[in-house]
Amino acid sequence: MRCLLVAVATALGLTPCAARALSQPPARLSQTGLYASQGQVDPGHLAFAPQYPLWTDGAAKSRWIHLPAGEAIQGRDEDSWALPVGTKVWKEFRFQGRKVETRLLWKTGPQAWVFASYLWNEAQTDATLVPETGLADLEVAPGLRHSIPSRTDCRSCHGQASVELLGFNALQLSTDRDPGALHAEPLGPGMVTLKELVARGLLRGARPDLLSRPPRILADGPATRTALGYLAANCASCHRGDRPLPGLDLDFRHTSRVTAAADEPGLRTTLRRPSTYLIPGEPASLRLDPADPGRSTLLHRMASRRPASQMPPLGSSLADQEALAHLRRWVANLAPSH
Ligand code: HEC
Ligand code: HEC
User: What is the C-alpha end-to-end distance of the chain, expressed in Å?
Assistant: First the structure.
């Protein structure tokens, strides 16, 4: 079909080519702008590592963001930064040293984002666009299976109408990094945090004391801080106060409005709170039960990989044993005063 000019197409009620082309991700990763030359990430992109990473079956990850030249992030709303149109973010997944998948989020309009995932070839020279429906159950190393989520699944975590970055935000890039964070990825050379974003004029409108009072999970001890940080990254994409799942009142999202440790939603909506989900064979359960941690539905669902009960329901085929061990210890040791 021939291309129509935007004005003509709009008058005819058709989709103009420009809009259609923009809503389609390129066929190959090498065409997305990630690399300056074969295998060399463009040095103009900013590498970053969120302090609380998402668990993906133990995959190693690298992430980069591209902000269009001369543009900056609008950070007035600390809990939901506005990114300039043209922003692109990539996340590379490696299993046993081999690149398997690279995901792309690309802001193409004030409310429009392109989601894509690319599967790496055997020779590790380039990666090709994965169909919208994703790819299930790839064997990425002997005995290790990995599924690439569908684009609908991407949006269950990153948002529908309003899309959000989950690892590139004020808490994740805070200069006050949690030394106990699970699966912590050390900051490599050149990786940006709030400090560099402010210094380079890439974050505008943020409160003046952002660097002297950087965002952090409020907690009365390091184990609680680490537990709530983990749950914020791994669970708050679906369980959040501003977009609640009907009838659940379950919220793991840290926001800048929290001013006291007891008010962190991850604690307030879970500890000794009754669960609508029941552990098979149990008449009633609490989400987090310090008196009997094994009967906490939150831990039960995190440990499960049965499709009907596993949490998160998407994105991993193995339960995160390190996180479960930390959370079980933490719940068992919570003081009765909590
Ligand atoms: C289970 C929830 C979940 C699903 C499903 C998911 N993501 Fe994410 N994604 C996250 C979280 C949480 C982070 C931040 C933590 C991290 O990077 O480890 C993230 C980070 C990213 C990043 C880096 C930018 C950012 O937001 O920090 C990209 C790019 C990305 N995801 C793309 C995708 C694409 C494309 C898909 C679908 C193929 C997808 N994601 C599916 C939860 C999810
Ligand atoms: C991709 C979206 C998504 C993510 C991410 C997610 N959940 Fe859920 N969760 C749901 C949905 C949908 C329900 C309601 C349906 C159900 O119970 O299966 C739910 C229900 C629950 C319930 C039952 C609450 C009750 O009182 O009945 C618990 C507990 C829970 N999730 C814990 C978690 C934890 C812990 C994480 C992170 C480790 C997590 N979820 C991540 C979508 C998600």
Answer: 65
- For residue 43, cis peptide bond before it (omega within 30 degrees of 0): no
Q: Which token pair is 315?
A: 């994105």
Identify the pLDDT of residue 336: 72
Tens of pLDDT, residues 189-213: 999 999 999 999 999 999 999 999 9
Beta carbon of 240 within 6 Å of any ligand 1 atom? no
**Between the CA atoms of 222, 219, 156 and 81, what dihedral angle is there, to the nearest 10 degrees?**
-110
On whether the CB atoms of residues 299 and 293 are closer than 8 A, the answer is yes
Amino acid at 3: C
Among protein residues, the one whose CA lies closest to atom 9 of ligand 1: 166
Residues in contact with 24: Cβ distance below 8 Å, sequence separation at least 6, in sequence order: 114
Q: Kindly report, residue by residue over 221-239, the tens digit of the pLDDT.
A: 999 999 999 999 999 999 9
CA-to-CA distance for 106 and 115, rounded, in angstroms? Answer: 7
**Residue 80 near residue 70, CB atoms below 8 Å:** no
